[in-house]
Predict the structure.
Amino acid sequence: MSHNSIETRQSQAPCVATIGFFDGVHRGHKFLIKSVIDSAAEHGLQSAVITFDRHPRLVLHKEFQPRLLTTADEKLRLLAATGVNRCEMLHFDEQMAALPAYDFMKTVLRERLNVRRLITGYDNRFGHNRAEGFDDYVRYGLELGMEVERAEAFVLNGVNVSSSVVRSFLSAGETDMAAMCLGYHYKISGTVVGGYREGRKLGFPTANIDVDDKLKLVPEAGVYAVRVRIGDEPGLLDGMMNIGTRPTFDGTSTTLEVNIFGFSGDIYGRRITVEFHRRLREERKFGSIRKLIEQLETDREEAERSLREEKEIDAE
């Protein structure tokens, strides 16, 4: 894996490449990257993925707050797992944003990264103001000694899989649909911080999570069946998570609280990762603490059943 900024110049082996932000590295991205790897093998070249260290709109629109599916580190790990030879993470700044598509293809893709074949996503645009399209890239490529082709869309149940489709599923709490598009369960990582301790009094002690990256998308409020990794420890622990404002206790700020089944260790200050499996219900206000406890017991049973059934299906 190599990281580059626009200023650096280095000698690179000739490659077949694709370019994009690749938020989430979902099944559509993997489909595209596989075509890059296959094309590289066919032409005796290296395979490369070219991406950016931050969302381009963060540079172009300072007030824009993207809701990201992956942090930069998560994205690099997922890209490495595709088996591509090289991942070039470019530093996206105002200087790069100002480059017209031709200049970007010439100075960055051809001269610095030695791209000989460029496979673009079905709807991908790049260059200043994204003003040009695929036909322009083909024409510029001919001039620069770079073959340009467009990949097919990856279609799942009649839907073109994209990062925005995944975001819309997560925003609606449909974490199972998001997982189908991603090819893995959506995750959030953070540090366990002090909470309100109401869960402990109810018999459902929870770890209150301060999410690592404030731009990371948090799924729709509600109760979820989840699996939890503590630090880098092997194995995942079953649990349930509540995202919301704790209306029974007249809360106002949104919290992310996870109850790990059968776990009693002290993980305050530890980093944990929560993997979302299924949304059990929406968050709601209960008329009494007793009714809340009864519902939490039902939630736990449903979460345990859901996670157990999923494990059984995976084992088949």
